[in-house]
Amino acid sequence: MKKPVRMKKLKIILHKDKKEKVLRRLFDEGNFQLENVEIEGIEDKGKQSTITVEAMSLLSRAEEVRAIFAELGIKPETNGTPIEKVSVNEKTSEEILKEIAEKLNTLEENARNLYTRMHEIKDEREKLETQLQTLKVLEKLNIDYSSIREEYERKYVHIYMAIGSIATDEVKIVQQDISKVTTDYAFFSHPLSDDRSIVFIVAMKKHGEEIAFILNLHTFKPLDLPDEFKDFELSDALIEFKERITNLDLEEKKVFHRLKALAMSEEKNLNVFKELLEFEKILDEIMTLFGRTVETYVIHGWVPSNQVYNISNIIREESEGLATIETEDASKTEFPPTLVQNPRVSAPLEVITGAYGTPAYDEYDPTSLVSITFPLLFGFMFGDVGQGIVIALLGFFIGSRPTVDPTLKKAGKTIMLCGISATLVGFLYGAFFSIEGLFEPLWLSPVHAASTNMNALLGASLKLGVVILTIAMLANVANEMAHHKYAEAIVSKYGISGIWMLFGGAYMISKHGTDLGGIATDLLIIPLVILPLIVMFLGGWKIEEQPLMVSFVEAIFEGLVKLLVNTISFMRVAILAIIHGALSLIMVLIIEMMPPTTMGFVGKAAVFVIMNIVIIVMELFVAFIQTMRLHYYEIFSKFYKGTGRPFKPLGFIRKYTTVDKKI
């Protein structure tokens, strides 16, 4: 197991004009974790400038441009080629925002003009198409178009006439409402489309105002021909309408292609804008962590001890000597961030320890231990050569994909290690894709052992539990001694006394089994179990200064009972191995029941494939969860607190840009 990297605290006093240059370099280096400055006598804090507001405004505008493209179904074409980063000259925040604003103004104007024209074309075409459909209906019904034209001119003195469209499901409602106003009217309707119908209404002029009111209540759209069509014959109007619609279609395609070309050409720029703006926003937001005087800024942060000289040189170089730097070791009242540099092989298991908690700055990181115990326990629960290979390949596929999230990539590599372990244990069990007998097991078959030699299988699980619990308690001893708590390392329930009692109890059970009477009357129980229990009790009372009864109860229940329960909990390893074998046996029995015909062979193949998939998916989940449970409740509880905070240095992942030169 590894201890976290030693940290040094840097205290920097920096001239206000050099702050931005220094911070940009610290972001690039990625080895400086900024801390909130709290110093007596320095009450002023750094404040965010207008940079954050301006950056957020520009980000919002850039997203609005993207939304325009997305609304029209325009997406950037990706052919899988690596992203070519744009080289940018590093400038001041004000210069960057000004340059982006100018470019975004032009892009936004072009996009909005084309977008607006697209909607104008759409609205105009919909209107023309509705009018065209209406005229087509009039043509079919031989309604004199000139009569309608005369209505525009004369408006009839005594006759009210309305022609237009309404929703089809409201036609009858409109007709019923009109009949309530007058019975002297003519009403005609005809479908225009799936949801609209043309209506032609003639009534006395005195009822016109009320009928118009009814129509307005039912989304009536009157036939409103452009002025230039009023003198057209019906046939000529139909031709003109069709020609205008065709021209609008052509214009729409041209505008769309222009928008698409704009989206394709500006996609890279939008990504660059977003990345640069997000960086400037972060750079401005961290100002609130600084202390401030009239001419200087006070900056505090943590740096790995092997990077102190490098970081200090960067600060001196970028500040041109206008900075003072002090280094300090962490005091007992401080909680430095934790940075653990695990070996490449065990690093994927950080996803397991990290889910439990980050190691404290002064405790060992158990990832190296977990890289052995986790695959080992999983393998004994899920021992199968063929299925183990499938799991290993699945984990390799997830863990090797470059686009996968780093945490998921670690989980994939963890699954790969578990699959390798399951494959190796599969040789011990003699199982290959749930079939036993293809080769002799190097140890035993869990299913056969369940009926012939159950004690051997359960005993092996308990012995494995004793070994792993002993390792966990030795890790606790190492932690206590690293803190110079030598007495606690001996008397603690998870220290030397705990190991003493664990081995003593294991020996008594191996000797007498479940014969409680034999265990109680065996004189060896005194040195092997009772004596370490007394040491725990006295240690809790005298050394840890617990109340007498609290120390007694903790020694009995937290020591004796909990260690017994923790050990018994490892029986789940054998039980899950038996369940895995039982599922495999069910598959074999189903296959053997099928007849030796062509369809039977097809059925056998189908059962073999389906059952193996079911077993892999189900047992992978169950075995993984149970292995995590053993670590979190039985193993970690002995020595690992996980109360630390991870080292999060200043840094910014640049996906679309590279910095060409400094300010």
Topology readout:
Layout: E1 7-15, H1 19-29, E2 33-35, H2 51-71, E3 86-89, H3 93-140, H4 145-154, E4 159-167, H5 171-181, E5 185-191, E6 196-204, H6 208-217, E7 221-222, H7 234-285, E8 291-292, E9 296-304, H8 308-319, E10 323-329, H9 350-356, H10 367-381, H11 385-400, H12 406-429, E11 431-432, E12 435-436, H13 446-452, H14 454-482, H15 486-491, H16 496-512, H17 516-521, H18 525-543, H19 548-569, H20 571-593, H21 598-639, E13 657-661
Parallel strand pairs: 3-13
Antiparallel strand pairs: 1-9, 1-10, 2-9, 4-6, 4-7, 5-6, 8-9, 11-12
Helix pairs in contact: 1-8, 2-3, 2-7, 3-7, 5-6, 10-12, 10-20, 10-21, 11-12, 13-14, 14-16, 14-19, 14-20, 14-21, 16-18, 16-19, 18-19, 20-21
Describe the structure.
The longest helix has 52 residues, at 234-285. The two termini are 44 Å apart. The protein is α+β, with helices and mostly antiparallel strands and 663 residues long. The mean pLDDT is 89. The chain has helices at 19-29, 51-71, 93-140, 145-154, 171-181, 208-217, 234-285, 308-319, 350-356, 367-381, 385-400, 406-429, 446-452, 454-482, 486-491, 496-512, 516-521, 525-543, 548-569, 571-593, 598-639; strands at 7-15, 33-35, 86-89, 159-167, 185-191, 196-204, 221-222, 291-292, 296-304, 323-329, 431-432, 435-436, 657-661. The chain has a domain at 123-249: 2-Layer Sandwich (Alpha-Beta Plaits), CATH 3.30.70.2750. The strands form 4 sheets. Strands 1, 2, 8, 9 and 10 form a 5-stranded antiparallel beta sheet that branches.
